[in-house]
Amino acid sequence: MTAEKDDSQYDYDAFVAYDYNDYSWIRHSLLVEMEQGRGFKLCIHHRDFPAGEILEEIIVDRIQKSRKTILVLTSEFVRSQWCDFEVSMARSQMFQSGRDIIIAVILRPLPFNCINKTLHNILKTKLYLEWEPRDEHAKELFWAKLDDALTEVV
């Protein structure tokens, strides 16, 4: 079920920031469960970014057009320049709007030495979700909590 929107300026329920190597999980798990199963509209760069435009400008635009930002955290993603940029833009949008918009998802365990200060503060001050691929009950709970986070009115 798509989140109740008190403002119609959003095109997406969430912008999804992730590493290219995690696209299989995005496509086969996240999109299947949250879009097909629960009716949310997510913005992912593989599908929703127009070709030939400046990537940084598209990211800023899509974050601004999304109610929330989901950070899909893996060691590869947190070490990338795109993580720094997307986290920075999401935090900027959060401060500008005065709304808590960041949802952190730890897809695979993160070595402590790969987490920068900004991400450490996000993980320390916000609830985050952890994906447990081998535990069916944990997966059901994960999807329910992600649904709650996306439908939460801020």
Automatic annotation (TrEMBL):
Its main location: membrane. It holds the Pfam family TIR. One of its GO terms (molecular function) is signaling receptor activity. Residues 10-150 form the TIR domain. It is a single-pass type I membrane protein. Signal peptide: none annotated. One of its GO terms (biological process) is innate immune response. It comes from the Eukaryota. PANTHER family: PROTEIN TOLL-RELATED (PTHR24365:SF541), TOLL-LIKE RECEPTOR (PTHR24365). This is TIR domain-containing protein. It comes from Capitella teleta (Polychaete worm). The lineage of its organism: Eukaryota, Metazoa, Spiralia, Lophotrochozoa, Annelida.
